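[SOLVED] Need 3D model of a four-part complex

Original post:
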Amino acid sequence: MATPDTVILLPKRTRPCTHDGARVSCENCSVRLNSVCAALDDNEIAALERIAQPVCFAAKETLFLEGEDAEAAYTVTRGAILLYRIFDDGRRQVVGFQLPGDFIAIDADKHHGYSADAITPVTLCRFPRKEFTALLAKKPNLLQRLYDTAEKELSEARDHLMALGQRSAREKLAWFLVHLRRRSARLDAASDTVALPMSRQEIADYLGLTIETVSRTLTALARDKVIAIVPNGVKVTDVKKIERLAAA
Amino acid sequence: MATPDTVILLPKRTRPCTHDGARVSCENCSVRLNSVCAALDDNEIAALERIAQPVCFAAKETLFLEGEDAEAAYTVTRGAILLYRIFDDGRRQVVGFQLPGDFIAIDADKHHGYSADAITPVTLCRFPRKEFTALLAKKPNLLQRLYDTAEKELSEARDHLMALGQRSAREKLAWFLVHLRRRSARLDAASDTVALPMSRQEIADYLGLTIETVSRTLTALARDKVIAIVPNGVKVTDVKKIERLAAA
DNA sequence: CGTGGCTTTGAGGGAGGTCAAGCGCCGTGG
DNA sequence: CCACGGCGCTTGACCTCCCTCAAAGCCACG
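Solution:
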């Protein structure tokens, strides 16, 4: 459903990058300041660096499925990842898009609470569970930092709930774009052009809409000169207006 | 909107219970095994007990508002609490119902991420922030436990997202009742009767529906002999069917 | 016994879903 | 080089589920 059928059957194992064997260098890490690693001292960083492995996935590859044993935690360093859950009947709810700097945690029950697909080619910093858990026990600071991250995610989940429960299609799209714009601004320089690596279907499943409604609504926003649709993204032409729509 | 206008103006301070001055006794605590306190050793419990204060609120009282300084964390020991966020224009999204055993945490940024009203008369176990944070720094076990709780809440938030994004009104209500039934089963003995301390409006704002749709849908479920509507709750008469509806 | 809050019920309308067709882009192969 | 096919996106027509507006029922409380 979400992925071509052949993909499901292949054993999906984590794979090292082509520039393999290389150790992770936190010092040069591009997401250092946006990730869970910010606010760790040199000692802690060094300890993390020792257990970290760089890994890559091609676009559309599945990193893991909901319910699987969580073998590792990750920090995304490049690309975009889709987090989702599916019903038996195929309905899918996208619960998040992970961008560079975002963390993928290990649940208390040691099983993934959602599935994850690479949207674009991605690279991640992989922390094997055993080592990571051991480190966590020794470094309360890291645990604290992880806890803060979880709280932040909870807050974002509640924003998402607001959007799904209370907003109209137009407001949902406006909120989505504003939200994404802010997140990418933290990474690159702020820009009026928001990249949309995900498909219309993925946006629809994120917002609880159909693909047709997403398409129609984006077209309508473009007609009203709030945005302009560009290849692989949109350009926000009326920031005031879209933010008013998004905030409601 | 959510509360009578006079309530907004009153300074809402935490108030001790009528049976005041009493220290908290964790040993006799009714929610001991369902709360964040489970899985703590005697030492840790004793330390928590030392900083805990019993507090009470009457029905409809506001515990705190979104954005306020978080002065304390809480464990609910009796009653039901409504967690919600509101838009400027009055729309409200209920993000959760806290029942005995549930924890109300302090965010990383030290401000409440949502507002909280007592639905029924409630009693809580209050942990002042300063002392609680200090204790957290000394007891990594407690922090770990809190982190697990946060992860569990995240998972529940994602269930909630599934419901809001993908389910029909009928499925939403079925899911809500099944969910609530499970939670109350953890507290009392399992029972076919699910107590609904919250109003129809609160259910509606939780599920992203209107009060009329909630009412109509419950009536329809009763007509179809899936449930029976009883004072302050519903009786589940066809467990199989409601669970099939809820899971979808 | 009246008043007000909460809930139910009814009638009608509209936002968004469903079904279906058409478009544009790109990779493939003749 | 262009025809073809596939995929993702857009657009249109229609319909349904849920929202809106309105009124009446129910129950607790003064």
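Edit: The helical segments of chain B are 5-9, 42-51, 129-138, 140-166, 169-187, 200-207, 211-223, 239-247.
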